[in-house]
Amino acid sequence: MDINALLLHGSFVLYSISVLLYIANARLHWPRLHQLAFGSVLVAFGCQSLYLGLRWFAAGYLPVTNLFSTLFFFSWSLAATYVYFELRYRLASAGLFVMLLNLLLLYTALPRDPSIPALIPMLDTPLFTLHVVFSFLGYALFAMAFSLAVLYLIQRKTSGLLLPSSNMLKQLNEEAIFLGFCFFTLSMLFGSYWAYVAWGYYFSWNIKALWSALIWLYFAGMCHAKFIRRWQGTGYAWLSIVGFGLVLFTYLGIGLLMNSNHPL
Known about the structure:
Blueprint: H1 3-28, H2 31-59, H3 67-89, H4 95-109, H5 126-155, H6 166-199, H7 207-225, H8 234-257
Helix pairs in contact: 1-2, 1-4, 2-3, 3-4, 3-5, 5-6, 5-8, 6-7, 7-8
């Protein structure tokens, strides 16, 4: 097994261990288990980062041009987002649901072809890298908001799990949505300028661009909805869940189920 395969499968094993430790911590409430779980996440994230760096160095560009690499980069972005929230807010057992989602992304990527295809000329620009990085950071933050929203709904029904307070989960959900919207806005701006440089127009009416615009409008509305009383709390949690469904459809559904001339 070469170093790349070792890093890839090692990160999957370590994330799996972290999930088991988070489950044990949710039941037993032992602080040591949470420390071991987060330590496993950090080592797994380090393996993922090294794997990404080696592929980037070998390719000469950010290798996010096929389904394997986008699923992997989505997983990496979600892990980075979780590490930020955990270090800043100490999420306790809340990490379980996020890591389950991350593990599912990585599990979906593993059986796919990891080869790095040749870069087509229209993607050979720093605008491509900026567009992709900001897009997947936005996706990861929307996934984080989805996880926090589910935990918020669970917290209101049970107190058996070691979770942050409902008020804290609500605030973190709102922060994840806002940060995700900011990153996704940057992605749209760089993507528009990239389209202008490549094809001579800022916006095309292909299905992927249309759904991306709809996502931007949806989350722009969510950034305002948090100030409206009837959308706060449970309503905002459900909006976050629906929003992530739209993100998944735009990311996977359009590419797998529809014809689109979007280069990715």
